[in-house]
Structures are given as C-alpha cells and as structure tokens.
Here is the input.
Amino acid sequence: MRYVILGNGPAGVNAIEAIRKVDREGEIINISVEPYRPYSKPVMPHYVGGFIPYEGMFFRPEDFYDRYDVTPILGDGAVEIDIDRSMVILQSGRRVPYDKLLIATGGKPRELKVPGHDLDGIYYMTNLDYTKKIMEKLPETKKALVLGGGPLGLKASLSLSHHGIDVKILISSGQVMSQVLDPDSAKILEKKLDESKVEMRLRTWVIAFEGSGGRVKQAVLNTGEKLPCDLVVIAKGVQPNLDLIDPKKIRTNVGIIVNHYMQTSRPNIYAAGDVAESYDILTGGNNTVAVWPRASEQGYYAGMNMAGFEKPYPGAHRMNSLDFEGVSCIVMGDVKTVKKGFVVIIQKDEKRNIYQRIILENGRIRGAAIIGRIVNVGGINRFIRKAVEIGRVKDALLEEKATFIY
Here is the structure.
C-alpha cells in the first residue's frame, strides 16, 4: 500500500503517526510545497517577538521522517491531482502514484488586492518564509501596521511591539476577535493591547498602499487618513486551500466535504485539517474548523481509516485558545448566537481580568468563553462535545473549586 500525504502540518503529521500504528510496512510519501520539516504556524509570532528560538517552531524532531519510515518530498509541492490515474503531479513535473491520498494542504490567505499590495514590506504571516522576511525587516522598522483583530493579529501586534516598534492594529469590525467574542469579553483583550502600547483602530481598513522605490511607505485608510509604515503584517482572511481541487471530481463547499471516515466523495482520497469540511456537532451539518487541535484530531482519524482501521470521526465544534499578555482566552462552541429560550450565564471580575460566559440551549452548553482562568475548561468542553444535559450542575459551572468528571 502506498500512502501519499499532501501537507506536513498537524493533520498530515498525525495521519502519518496513525497509519504507522496500523500499517508498519506500507510506503508513506509526505509532500509539502515548503522545504521545512513540520513546524507550528501558531507560534510564528512568538518567534518574531523573540520569545522562542528558531528551533522552537518545529513540533517534530529532525529524525521524524526516519523514525516513521517516511519518504519526504519537501519544497516540491503538488500542482495537480490526476484522479483518473491515481497520481499526484508536482511542481518539478515528477509524478507520484498513490493507493490512498490525504489532502492536508491547510488554508491560504485571502489576498488583499488593493493598489500597492505588491510593494516590498507587506507580508502575510501564514508561512515560515514570510516570517523570515519579517524578521529581516525588524532592525530597520520604526512603524508597523497589523491588519486583523483575530488571534494571529493580536499575537503579531504584541510581538512587534516587544521590539520597541510603533505598532497600530487595524480592525474592520467594532472589536477584537469579533467572530468568537461578545463586546464585554473583547474589552479585556483590548485593555491589554492598550497596556502594551499597541494602538487599536476599530472599523478601519486599508484601501491602498503607497510607496517609494518599490517599498511600502504608507497606508491609505477608509477614513481618508494616511498612516506611515515601514512594515505591514496581514493576519486575517484565511480560507481552505482548494487550489488542487476540481469541484467536478471532488465534492466541495467552503472546504472539501468529508464523511465520518474523513473520506471525500472519492473513496481512496481523504481530507483533514483546515482544508476539510467535516461534521459539526452543534449544527449537525458540515463545517470548517480551522484550529490546531481539530486538524491534529482529523489527521489521526484520517490516517487510521486510510490504513484500514475503521474509526468514525465523532465531529467537533469551534474552539480557540490564546494567551494574551498573561490573560488566557478560551472560546468553545458557538458564543455568538443567542435566541429566544437560550440561557446566558455570565460571571465578571474586572479587577482580575476574568470574564466567563456560557450559553445554554435546551439545558445543554452551546458555547462558552472563559477569559482569565482555565478552571473547568476541560469539563465544559466535554459537556459540549457529548451534548450533556447539565441542569443539575448549571449553577456550579463557573465556580473556581468545581470539578466535573464525565
């Protein structure tokens, strides 16, 4: 059996490890467009900020491929999947046949196509090559702009500020992390931005960049203002990378649609991670869940099923975690939807930067935002995943000394 895995992020790596639990003899080929061994994209801002060394970004050791008897093809990415011939065609023209194929190509940034977007000094924080270029620019950077108020944008802002750079973060919505936080919980993180000397601009976005000598010099905003900048980091707008997919041959929606066994509409082709649209336990339908733990989990289930050990994926819900200047922020499930009949439990302690919000639907937890503490997070997460009726413990959910075993 020949397994070909496209991508060496958390989904691809966990698939390799799962396959080897079942099949020790099959051939595994791991193909990546990037020339690096597996590294963690979420920690790239920590590298930029000087909080971790270069080696700290890699989440598997140098001998990973040897240890799992894998043939790596790095820096020569796939450009086409020839489904009729069960073959992957690479940038170099090389053809790699497969018996089972996993598409774990992750996400890609939505390009900001405004005038001047191709000037030097404008980078997406989406891969290690871009991160290295940002590092090269730091010594000569006095003013930086970060676009995007999600976890990556917040971490990038603090990392740049750590170098003494004048940082402004532009957020098109009315608060940080608008996709997952309500306004009250967002205020805690916004306060931390202010304490870190990062200037936040809400309801603000770039309509053009202007430069000199091919290098970015200023950004033109929707407000008409022009902000000087030596460096621009775009940390928003990631979407599933479907560049290889012919929707006439593999079923897609927002991402590649997979069943409970992580199979695509082609039984010998699987998908996992940010590129996959898998079962959402809250909606009962399929959804993309672009976070590290879900990608790792999906890769594991895909690998097990590819190797013949049938193991249905139980599904997932949205979950984000962020440590922001010493304040933890964990969001699970749907914390934005509040309808008639829903019960909302809120606990605040502004002095300690604690804010907790749990939304109940029919006696079950639909979503939770826990900021400033991590007590009970594991139990609450299990309640969401297993759709547990929590009427008897509802009043104790947010107590610091409560312990839930389920």
